[in-house]
Every structure is written in structure tokens, then in C-alpha cells.
Design goal:
Elements: E1 3-10, H1 14-25, E2 31-34, E3 52-59, E4 63-69, H2 72-76, E5 84-89, H3 93-104, E6 108-115, E7 121-126, E8 132-136, E9 140-147, H4 151-162, E10 168-171, E11 189-195, E12 204-209, H5 212-216, E13 224-229, H6 233-244, E14 249-256, E15 262-268, E16 274-280
Parallel strand pairs: 1-4, 5-8, 9-12, 13-16
Antiparallel strand pairs: 1-13, 2-3, 3-4, 5-9, 6-7, 7-8, 10-11, 11-12, 14-15, 15-16
Length: 283
């Protein structure tokens, strides 16, 4: 089964951030590895040895939030981006509202969690660690991407990689925002959703076209990756190669991982979205 989950980069405060997320969502860490306990220990400065190379927190059904402390030049180059959200959904509006309020502590509410003009409930916030969240009500956690006008092109590409069908594609001209949208933006996408893997298993890639001031202030950041896991090494390799096609950049080739037991790779696709690929070694 293909899964897709957010992977966050922090410049030294991953553990603080994930302790906060655990206080909000509950659960226990699936993995917590410090640099001093990994194959990177000998190459890691003493001041960084207690930082986290990897941490994973399961959330809901089949969702995992993961993160790392980037070091050295990567930490200096880290950009807190406005090109993605994590979309958080509880089983009920009441549960989602509680999670939203907990995430907002020390952060900034952009849109209060309340009834949405299209029905249901919706809210947006930036938490105290600079991570952007959207809230709805479905008991899942999924990536939500922003593009500056080429969402449809990007999602047609992702559909060619992962398969499936869009189950929601809304243009600004067909939405509640139509009257307030400039004519040149009316055909752009207010929202699109693409299930990845088995439908109903909680993996949905979503996005919007950032318009107006959002589009002008759009920046591609390096503080989030999307992680993909296929049903085996060869399926994951095929997905990795497809994402790298047509102008993408392979950062780390998909090959046996130095920590053993799996294959791993990193790629930035042609639209500037960063991906990690991981698969247990079944060969």
C-alpha cells in the first residue's frame, strides 16, 4: 500500500516541537533517534550529538508525522515556508476544534475554526514553531500544498505518477470566492484532492493556487518533505524515478540506506516539492 505523510525539518528544536505535538494529539513516538546513537555519530559535532536525526509520531489511522534536526549548512539555509500546510481533521467538529485550539497555543490563528461558507467547519493557524495547519473534520492528517498558479499542471503530473482520480476539483469561478476573484484567476484552482494509495485509508494530497497577496508572497521552502512508501522496493523505486522525471532533481539516489534494513532516496520534483522515498528491504 502506498502511504504519504509530512516530514518536517527544524533547526535544532525538533524534540521540543514533537513533545508539543504529542501533547496535542496524544500517542507515543514510533521512533526517536539521536545523532549520537546513529551511523552519523562520528561525523556529528559534539554540540549536535543530542539532536534528533529522526522522530516519528503516529496520528489517527495510518498517519505519521515525522521530523529531523537539520545540521550545519542545512540549518543555516532552512526556510520556514508558506508553500505547504498540514491538514488536520478530527472525527467530529468538537474534537477538531479542541485540537485546533491546542495547536494555536503560542501560535497565530489565521482563520478561526468555525462554520465554513462551503459547509462543514474550517480553520487555519500557524503554530509556535512556524508550521502551518488547516483544520477540518475527518480524523486524518495530510499534506496541503500551495502553488502560484500551476496547481492543475502539478496535480496532473502527480496523478500520472500515483494513479487515481481527483475526487474534488474546484475552480475559483465555481466557488464562493468567484465575485472577489480577479478575472485572470477565475480558472485557477481553489482546491484539488488526489487520493494516494487505497481510497479511504487516509492518504490524500491536496492543494490550492495561491492568488493575490498570497501569490505575491509565495516562497518555496525547504522545511517540509513528503514521504512516500510503496508496497516494496521496486514499486517505491518506480515512484521515485517518476517523480524525478521532467526536470526534477535527485538529491540522494534511491538505494540501500546506510542504517540498514531499507532503501531510501530524496528528490525535488519539477514543481519544487521535496520528497523522501523509503521502503523496507525485501530483496
Amino acid at each position: 500500500m502506498i502511504t504519504i505523510n509530512p516530514y518536517l525539518n527544524f533547526a535544532g528544536n525538533t524534540e521540543e516541537a514533537f513533545n508539543f505535538y504529542r501533547s496535542v494529539f496524544g500517542g507515543e513516538f514510533l521512533a526517536l533517534m539521536r545523532y549520537k546513537d546513529t551511523f552519523e555519530a562520528e561525523r556529528t559535532p559534539d554540540a549536535d550529538k543530542d539532536k534528533l536525526m529522526h522522530i516519528a509520531l503516529p496520528m489517527g489511522k495510518g498517519n505519521i508525522l515525522m521530523g529531523t534536526d537539520v545540521l550545519g549548512q542545512m540549518a543555516e539555509d532552512l526556510v520556514q515556508s508558506n508553500s505547504f500546510y498540514i491538514c488536520m481533521n478530527g472525527e467530529t467538529p468538537e474534537e477538531t476544534g479542541k485540537l485546533f485550539n491546542a495547536l494555536a497555543v503560542g501560535g497565530k490563528v489565521v482563520y478561526p475554526f468555525d462554520k465554513a461558507p462551503w459547509g462543514g467547519y474550517f480553520g487555519q493557524l500557524v503554530d509556535q514553531f512556524g508550521i502551518q495547519w488547516m483544520a477540518d473534520s475527518m480524523n486524518t492528517i495530510n499534506p496541503y500544498l500551495n502553488f502560484a498558479g500551476n496547481t492543475e499542471e502539478a496535480f496532473n503530473f502527480y496523478k500520472s505518477v500515483f494513479g487515481g482520480d481527483f475526487f474534488m476539483l474546484i475552480r475559483f469561478k465555481d466557488s464562493s470566492e468567484a465575485d472577489r476573484t480577479p478575472k485572470e484567476d477565475l480558472d485557477k484552482l481553489m482546491h484539488i484532492s488526489l487520493p494516494i494509495g487505497e481510497v479511504g485509508k487516509g492518504n490524500v494530497l491536496m492543494a490550492t493556487d495561491a492568488t493575490g497577496k498570497m501569490g505575491e508572497g509565495f516562497e518555496r521552502g525547504n522545511n517540509c518533505h513528503l514521504t512516500i512508501n510503496g508496497g516494496g522496493v521496486e514499486e517505491t523505486r518506480a515512484l521515485f524515478n517518476a517523480l524525478a522525471a521532467n526536470g526534477g532533481k535527485v538529491v540522494h539516489p534511491f538505494d540501500k540506506a546506510p542504517w540498514g534494513g531499507s532503501y531510501f532516496g530524496m528528490v525535488t520534483d519539477q514543481f519544487g516539492v521535496q520528497w523522501m522515498a523509503d521502503s523496507a528491504d525485501d530483496q
